Every structure is written in structure tokens, then in C-alpha cells.
Amino acid sequence: MSVFIIAEAGVNHNGDLQSALRLIDAAVEAGANAVKFQTFNTQALVSKSVKQADYQAQNTGKQKSQYELLKSLELSEQDHRVIIQHCLNSDIEFMSTAFDDESIRLLHQLGMARWKIPSGELLSVPYLRKIAAYNQPTILSTGMGSLEEVQFSVNTLLKAGLEASNLTVLHANTAYPTPYEDVNLNAMQTLEKVLNLPVGLSDHSLGIEVPIAAVAMGAQMIEKHFTLDKSWPGPDHKASLNPSELKTMVTAIRHVEQALGHGEKTVSASESMNIAVARKRIVAARPIPKNTVFSEENITLKRSDSGVFATEWDQVIGQKSTRDYQEDEGIELD
Question: Where is each AFP-like domain found (predicted)?
């Protein structure tokens, strides 16, 4: 199964519909399977007194409340309808993370077919139950969570009606950007082993190396933030890929999944033609008269276009030559 790549537009549209549409176009050009936004009602999501996260304040360069920040990044219902239609026209899957009950209802009403549970809702029991009740393909991000907390979340989803076949768990670290020493890709494999579920990576590190490595380690899904311009004001632009980097990442992932192959050790068609010229054969080390016993003194191994291959060495030693051989001439067995 091909790796499912989610181009995370998030709030990198800065609240502007035209920028959101351009983000969709960039995701399509990069070859992503889906483009994902964030759907929220700021009033329902956050109290007005809550401060920005440190990374948000640093990346925006402004000290304001989370309420002020998020309010400027909201997309209206009509915006969603335009975005969804543009995704349909562009043959890319629309996704969005819902952050409150009203947004869950809106996305369900708009026909979204795949749910993404963000790391911040890992332990939000009522939220998890609402998503699970739809029993549609669901992705669970696990940033800021211990293994026990991830197990709690998974069990909550399954008890609430989500079938295990519809659940994918993403290893994640919610630092923006994530230091390489904190990525801990091996934890993704731990999740796979313990949960016995498909796993992937929601990556917030800089660059494209980590998602590519995750695919080589068995990730079935990759989520990565991207933006039209890293210099734009906003909380996530600096930790995002630009369109060119996103395309390079997608291409590299496709190459890696091709290179992983079927797992059997066989001779491929592309290399089989080299056997005749790369493997050594048994040839005469010097002129050998007829009826001479072949020995380590008069035969040797060389690349040659005639003679038996080196696997027959023990069978040739001790036999008599049935004809004369010139030096470098391939030795044949009767």
C-alpha cells in the first residue's frame, strides 16, 4: 500500500481564502494525497485570557492572546465550501482538523470522509467519542502523550464504536520546530508493536529528512506542514516546508517506498544482465595441454565471456582436460 501523504496547510492561509486555494494548488503540484486545514470556532475553542504558546509568540513576533490570534485565522462555512469544491476539481482529498463540537458537526455536514484528531485532543474523551461514532477512517496524533495515554485514547475510540480497521496512529512531537534529538522515530515502531495498528508520522522538524526516514522505518502515513512563504507572519510558517521542498519530500518518499520492495532476496531483471560480465569464471592460468589434470596451479578465476562459473571450482579440480587450452581460455565441463 502506498504511503498516504498529507500536506498540512493548517492555518498557513492566514485567514485569506485565496491563499488557501493557492495552498491546495501547491499540494497538488507536489503530489500529496490530501491537503489538510484546521476548522475551529474560536469562541468555543479557547478562553479569551489564554496566552499564545511560546512558539506562536516567537513566530508571529506579537504578544497577543490565543483568542486574538485564532480569530484572525478562522475560515467561514462558505470558505470551507469553496475550498472543498476546489479540492474536488483538483483531484486531491480535502481534510480538516476539527477543534470543537460545532466544527465536528460542520465537517460532517460538508461530507468530510477522513478525520484527524490533533495531539491536543488526545485525552478529550467527549471529543474522541463524537469522532468515533462516525466510524470513518480516523487518524490519531499522539504528541505530548505517553504510551499509556495513547493506549487510553485508542481504547476510548474503539469502545465508542470506531473499528480498528479505520484507525491510524501518528507518532508526533508538538514542538515547532522539533529538535532532531527529540523526534524519537523509534517510538513510532513501538506504537506499531504495542497497538498492532497502522502507524505514521506527523512531523514538525525542519527539513525533509525525518519523514523520509520514517517511511523507510515503516510509516504508512506522513503529515507535514507547508506554506507558500516561510517569511509570512503567522504561528506555523517558519516550521513549514515551502512548495518546492514539499514536492522534493513527496518525490523522495515515493522513491523510498519503491526501493523498499517486496522483501524477497531475488535477482532483479535490471541486474540479471550483469551476471555474465561481473561474476568470475574458471579460465586457464597458462596453456594447458590435453589430458592435463586441472589444479590450482593451472586454472584461475577471471571475468570472462566463456568457461563455467566459479561455483564449479571443486568439480573442475582433479578432472583432466579433454582438449588443449590457451591462457585465459574458459574451462568447460563435459
Answer: 281-334
Topology (CATH level 3) of domain 4-260: TIM Barrel (3.20.20)
Which one-letter amino acid corresponds to residue 278?
Answer: A
Q: What is the pLDDT of residue 68?
A: 83
The DSSP code sequence of 106-162 is HHHHTT---EEE-GGGTT-HHHHHHHHHH-S-EEEE-TT--HHHHHHHHHHHHHTT-
Global confidence as pTM: 0.89
* Cβ-based neighbours of 96, under 8 Å, separated by 6 or more: 36, 37, 38, 39, 80, 107, 112, 116
Cβ within 8 Å of residue 247, ≥6 positions away:
29, 30, 31
- Dihedral angle sign, alpha carbons of residues 13, 141, 128, 93: positive
What is d(CA 167, CA 98) in angstroms, rounded to the nearest whole number? 17
Nearest partner of 157 among 174, 134, 180, judged by Cα: 134
Cα torsion angle, 141, 45, 236, 6, sign: positive
12-66 confidence digits (pLDDT tens): 999 999 999 999 999 999 999 999 999 998 887 887 877 666 655 565 555 667 8
The strand order across the sheet containing 34-39 reads 93-98, 34-39, 4-10, 221-225, 199-203, 167-172, 138-141, 115-117
Containing 81, the helix (H) or strand (E) segment is helix 77-90
Domain ranges (residues) in the chain? 4-260, 269-316
Residue 281 Cα to chain centre, angstroms:
44
Summarised one tens digit per residue, pLDDT across range 160-196 is 999 999 999 999 999 999 999 999 999 999 999 999 9
DSSP E strands: which ranges in the chain?
A: 4-10, 34-39, 93-98, 115-117, 138-141, 167-172, 199-203, 221-225, 280-284, 299-303
Amino acid in position 47: S
